[in-house]
Specification:
The protein is an all-alpha fold and 299 residues long. It is built from 13 helices and no strands.
């Protein structure tokens, strides 16, 4: 069903709104609850133990604090001293430094200097989200926690066989939504918008999709900018706003040009080119005026 102009006007999709997280932070679901478990109560909870191994017993030089170990571990990694860097990070992680827990999760998720170990990465990220799910968003480590939620969301989308983590889009949606609403993470907002648009893990809802994509687009997430632009330009599931759609596609295309295009960005440039070719001269002129206003607010 197509929505009315009033429903998807620029003002409406720009409104701020709040939500509660929709999934428990260990990814579990219980039969009596629909569709997911209740959120954790406010406050910190005891984390799961970080993955253990021989390196956790190693102690860095005397008088080093756990945060010093975190910083020196990162420096060692930059210098190519992988084993020593891991020792220092594991020392810091065992003592609760959020950045160290996150960094180890990223190392094993991405295979940064080590083999990819998604099971181990999952445990690090899960322990971080369980311990810091409701820490104030303005804290220095909030971005680590938000990214941990986003990464867990991706894990739950595809599953991890060795960790007995089955694909579960409902739990994935809850992970993304908490990072999107509580921490205001633009990547999470983009993922929530996509899931509403596709009806994955949540009922399909183009209006909700546009709202979340707009929040993410305003924060500079170029995939959200391009997807929102394509929706509005084509009028797919929403009323058509061609000039506004072309504007967002232009912003996304310019971001790709500025930051460097990767293989995953081709759809953005292709979608922009197709929309520009189809747009009328009046639509192009109006889109350009929107772009000038956008750039003026960011000077």
């Amino acid at each position: 069903m197509r929505t009315s102009n009033a429903v998807v006007s620029l003002g409406l999709i720009g409104l701020a709104f709040g939500f509660s997280p929709a999934a428990s932070f260990d990814g579990t679901r219980t039969p009596e609850m629909a569709p997911v478990t209740a959120p954790l109560p406010p406050g910190r909870v005891a984390p799961l133990g970080a993955p253990t191994g021989p390196a956790l017993s190693a102690v860095p030089p005397a008088a080093a604090t756990p945060f010093d170990a975190f910083r020196s571990g990162n420096q060692m990694l930059r210098e190519g001293r992988i084993d020593q860097g891991l020792l220092a990070l594991e020392y810091a992680a065992e003592r609760g430094v959020p950045g160290a827990i996150w960094k180890l999760g990223r190392i094993y998720a991405d295979g940064e200097g080590v083999g990819i170990d998604e099971k181990r990465a999952f445990e690090y990220f899960r322990s971080l989200t369980k311990a810091h799910a409701y820490d104030p968003p303005g804290t220095p480590h909030a971005r680590f926690v938000a990214n941990a939620f986003v990464t867990l969301g991706h894990f739950y989308l595809k599953g991890i066989p060795d960790a007995d983590v089955r694909p579960d889009p409902v739990v994935a949606h809850g992970m993304f939504r908490h990072a999107a609403s509580y921490f205001g993470d633009p990547e999470a907002q983009y993922q929530v918008g996509r899931m509403y648009l596709d009806g994955a893990g949540t009922p399909k809802d183009a209006v909700q999709a546009a709202r979340w994509l707009r929040l993410s687009a305003d924060m500079g997430q170029r995939n959200a900018q391009a997807l929102l632009g394509a929706m509005l330009f084509k009028g797919k599931d929403v009323s058509r706003q061609a000039a506004m759609g072309l504007f967002w596609l232009t912003v996304a295309k310019d971001a790709v040009a500025k930051e460097g295009a990767g293989p995953d960005d081709k759809w953005i440039t292709d979608t922009y080119a197709a929309a520009f070719a189809q747009a009328t001269e009046d639509e192009r002129v109006l889109a350009h005026s929107f772009l000038e206003r956008w750039m003026g607010r960011r000077r």
